[in-house]
Amino acid sequence: MQYVLEFISNQFDAIKFILNDASNPPLENQFNIKVNYSNSVQNNAINISCSGYFKNFDLNEDPSLERDLTFENGKSNFDFLAAIFFLLSRVEEYRDNPRDQHGRFQSSSSLTSKLDLLKYPIIDEWIQAFEKKILETFGIKLQKRNGYSFTSTIDIDHIFAYRSKPYFVKVGAFVRDLFTLKFQRIKDRFLESDPYDTFDYLVEVNKNKGSNNKAFILTSERGKFDKSLHPSHKEFISKVKSLSENFNIGIHPSYQSGLDLEKLEKEKSDLGKIVNSDIVDSRQHYLKMNLPDTYRNLIKAGITNDFTMGYPDKVGFRAGTSQSFAWYDLESDHSTELTIHPFAIMDVTLKQYLKLNKEAAISLSKRIIDSIRKVDGQFILIWHNSSFYHSEGWKDWKEIYEEILSYAKID
Question: Which one, of 325, 295, 256, 346, lies nearest residue 94 by Cα?
């Protein structure tokens, strides 16, 4: 309960919740705002329906979730405090649900997806309705701590498509393209500029667009799912150093590092040495995470901010909110110092999973951004430096990217 109330109070200036129970009721007029969380209805208070969810917590029990929070017949239409905890703490991700081929929790298993609520920042909307109820009941207008914000982020899985790759990789890929008749890719191998080397463009197009531009860089030895240049390669070091002049740099932990603390710490250390800075931001490669182990390892490695919270196959709000929040370790039953920053849209989601054309991708993105603006939320976008390569099907996506950036820009 304290965790939920702290999340709510952190959205506003000069508000603090103090818990009192029936055996120790507050003195009359002790507080400016009175909230009654029980099954009774009290006069001169905002009455929130109590479902007993916290008292009788069951990992496999879903609380009630409604699209809209209303206050009818003297109390709320559902226990939104329980619903907030359920979504933020990711209760459903601790259950024995089917996983995809990468061991990831699937959006189809989430309650918000089943209720068709994934595309709405429902927690932010509930808090906005609660804020309105406070104004109606007590004549007190709360002040939001922060307004709408936009963070543009880049995931760098590959520095180059072809350039500087090991000889055996080049030969193998060339033969594969030849046998699959991908002649344009063969021609592209001899271009002066590598198709993935879009870094100068990314720096220029992101100027004055986001409040905080970030780049997450895969820094590991080559493996089945990790195919960037080795972090000791001079071209890798040069590109990363150059990018760090315009983007805040975070680690993109490799495919296996989510469950391998030693590997994670080495990758973080290697990247920190290149940019001469302590790395505190992270986003998992392939968005591959398992709770609570992945987040516990991030904390042990000194990461304080994670940007993985979102689904690869759906846009929207995996944790029900656009706002940053403290990770709650459900097994240990306590809030942690790791701050979770949910993203709402990823390029690969729009193109590969949803298979949207230019107009549909832009339209959907604008609807998501509008929903975040309405609640003074935080919009985080993921793009890849490789997502402009025509021969891999990204012909129109430079225009889509620029349109999203311009629309999301802070006025």
Answer: 295
The 3-class SS string of the chain reads CHHHHHHHHCCECCCCCCCCCCCCCCCCCCCCCCEEECCCCCCCCEEECCCCCCCCCCCCCCCCCCCCCCEECCEECCCHHHHHHHHHCCHHHHCCCCECCCCCECHHHCHHHHCCCCCCCHHHHHHHHHHHHHHHHHCCCCCECCCCEEEEEEEECCCCCCCCCCHHHHHHHHHHHHHCCCHHHHHHCCCCCCCCCCHHHHHHHCCCCCCCCEEEECCCCCCCCCCCCCCCCHHHHHHHHHHCCCCEEEECCCCCHHHCHHHHHHHHHHHHHHHCCCCCEECCHHHCCCCCHHHHHHHHCCCCEECCCCCCCCCCCCCCCCCCEEEEECCCCEEEEEEECCCCEEHHHHHHHCCCCHHHHHHHHHHHHHHHHHCCCEEEEEEECCCCCHHHCCCCHHHHHHHHHHHHCCC
Token pair recorded at residue 6? 């702290």
**Strand 325-329 relative to strand 334-340: parallel, antiparallel, unpaired?**
antiparallel
Contact 58, 51 (CB under 8 A): no
- Per-residue pLDDT band at 184 (split at 50, 70, 90): low
C-alpha 341/C-alpha 252 separation (Å) is 15
- Which is the CATH superfamily of the domain at 149-160+196-408? Glycoside hydrolase/deacetylase (3.20.20.370)
Nearest-10 crossing angle of helices 2-9, 80-88: 90
Where are the domains positioned within the chain?
2-138, 149-160+196-408
* 191 compared with 375, residue with greater pLDDT: 375
Lowest mean pLDDT among 169-178, 203-212, 224-233, 372-381: 169-178
Across 333-354, average pLDDT: 98
Do the Cβ atoms of 199 and 239 come closer than 8 Å?
A: yes
